Structures
1.
Amino acid sequence: MNNVEFIKIDLNNLETIRITRSYIGQNHSDINAIINNAGISGDMSKSSSDFTVEELKEATDVNFFGDFEIIKSFTPILATNNGKILNLTINENPNSFFYPFT
C-alpha cells in the first residue's frame, strides 16, 4: 500500500475539508479514489421520538452536509482522473436494530 495516504477530516469542521482539498490538489492531483468512512449514529438505544433537535442537527450536519461537502470538494479532481468516492457506514456499536455482522 505504498500509494495510500490516510488523512483525517473532521466533518464537524468544514474548513478541514477545504484544507484537505487544497492539500490533495497540490500533492496528489492524480488521485482516483476517496474512501469516506465518517459519520455518527447518535444514541442507537433511543427511540426516534426521544432524540432532541440538537442531536438530530448534529447527525445531519455530519452525515448529510459533511458528506455533501466531501463530494462537492473532491468531484472536480476525481472527475479528471475518472475516480470514485466510496461512502461507507457501519455502526461501531451494533444493537438489536442494526447488527450488520450477523
2.
Amino acid sequence: MTQAELDEWKELYYHLVEFSFSVHNMLDEILDSIGEERGKYTKLALRVYSDSDFMETSKRQAELVDLFVNYNPDKPEETIEVITDKKWFVRSKSEVLVKHLQFDTEEYTYSYLTNNIVQNTSYEPLLKDELEKAINFDTKEQAELWKNPLTEAVLLPVGDE
C-alpha cells in the first residue's frame, strides 16, 4: 500500500469505527469514490476497482476485508506494509559541485532533466528536496528516450519520501 492509500485507509477506518459500519459499508464507501476526481477514497478505489477482471477485483476486496478485520490502529505497521511510490528520472551520471553563496556552503548533487520555460528542457542541479522540479516518467523506457551519453535513467522515490 502506498503512503497516500494508507492515509485514506486510516481516515476510512476511523469513519467506519466511529459509526459502527460493517465491511459492506467500507466497500460501498470506496466504490462511491470511483470516477470522482475529488472523491474521499480515490486512491483506494483505484487500488481495488482498477482491474476489469472480476476475480482480481474480488481478490483485492478480500484483502481489504482481511485488513479491516486485523487492522490495529495503534500499530498499523504490523498489518500494513507501506510501499514507496517511485518514478523514473533522467540525471547526470556524475555529481556536480553546487555552491550556495547565500549560506557560504557547497555540496555535490546530480543534475536532473527539468522543464525550463526559456529552453523547454534542460539539466539543472537539484537537491533531494527539489526533485518535484525534475521531469519524471512512469517507465524506464520513457526515461531512456531522453538519455544521452552523459546521463542515466534512475528509479527514485517521489512524494513524501
3.
Amino acid sequence: MKKQICILSLLLLVIISLFACSEGEAQGKINKTGIVTEETRLYSDPGLKDSIAYVYQNDLVFVISKNSKGYYVQMPVMNIPPTEGFIPIDAVSFDTKLFTAANYGVLADVKTTLYNSPDINDVYSTSNGVVKILERKDNWILCGLKAGEGEKWVQADKIKYELEYIDYIDDKNSIFFPLKNR
C-alpha cells in the first residue's frame, strides 16, 4: 500500500511539474523581435484596458514577455525614454519573412553610410541605431533618423530587422521607465 501511495505521489508531482513548465513557457520571457500584423493599440496594463498609443501594421516591436492576454513589448527606440506596453497576442507574428515590409529597421553597421539621395556618390555622413522606414526605391530606403535628425537614404542591404532591448533607467528619478507591471 505504501509503495502504491509513493508511486501515485511521484506521478502527481511529475504531472504538476509538466504543467508548471508548459505554463511558464506560455507566460514567460520571449526576448525577440516581432512584427505587428494589424493596427492595434498599445496598453499600459496587462489586462489590455488602458490604451496609451496606436501601433500600426508592419511596426517592429521587441517582445519582452507574454501573459494570458498580451505581449509586453518595447517599441523601436527612436527617442529616450523608450515606449513600452502590452499589445494583443494575435496582433504579433515572429515570421521573419514579413520583416522586409517593416516600418522600422536598424542600421546594420556602427557607422552606416547615409546619403542625401539614392545615389552612391551623394554621401551625407554616417550614423547608427533604429530608423523609421519612409520609402523603398529599388535597392534604397529613405529613413527617418532617431531624435528628429531628419531623413536620409540608406542602401537596402545596410538595414537589419532585429531590434535589441534598451534597458533605460531614468537617472533623474532612479527608476525603471516607463512601466513597472511587466
4.
Amino acid sequence: MKTMTVKTQQQLNQVLAEEAFITIILDGDEFSIPDQKLLTGFTFIGKTPTTLLKLVGAPGYSFCKKSKGDVHDINQLAPLGGIAAVKDVYITSESTLELAFQNREEYRNWGSATIDRNKINIVFIDETMDYLIEQGKDKSPAERFVDDLFEDFIDSVFKI
C-alpha cells in the first residue's frame, strides 16, 4: 500500500481529494477530515498518540439502539471502509458525533486510537438492525409507534 506523509491540513485535503486506498502519516499536531465523501480506504497514522484528528460528520439518521423512533439530523460519520484503519491518534469532534461502524470487526481497525467519548458516540449498525428486528417480532408497527410516542411523552414530563 502506498504511503504519504502530510504536515499541514492543506496537504491532507489535497491527498484526500487526489488519492485512494493509501496510508497517510499525519506529521503534525492537528488535522480534520473535512468531508466524508472524500474517504476511500485510507489508513491514518499519527506521529504520536496525541496527534489530534477531528472528525466532521453530516446530518443523518441515528443507528443507536437507544434512539426512539426515527431520530434524524444528528451529526454522523459512518466510515464504512472509507477509513480502513486509524493508529496513534486522538479522535475528537467539535460537536457531538455518532461514529457508526458496520460491525465490531471494522471498529477493531481503530483499536490503537484514543476516542473522545465525551464527543463521540460509537454505534454498530449490524447490532442495531438485529436489535430492531428482535424488538419488532411481537408487536405491529402501530403498537411500536404508540409505545415510542408514550415513552417520549413520559420522558418529556418526567425529565430528571
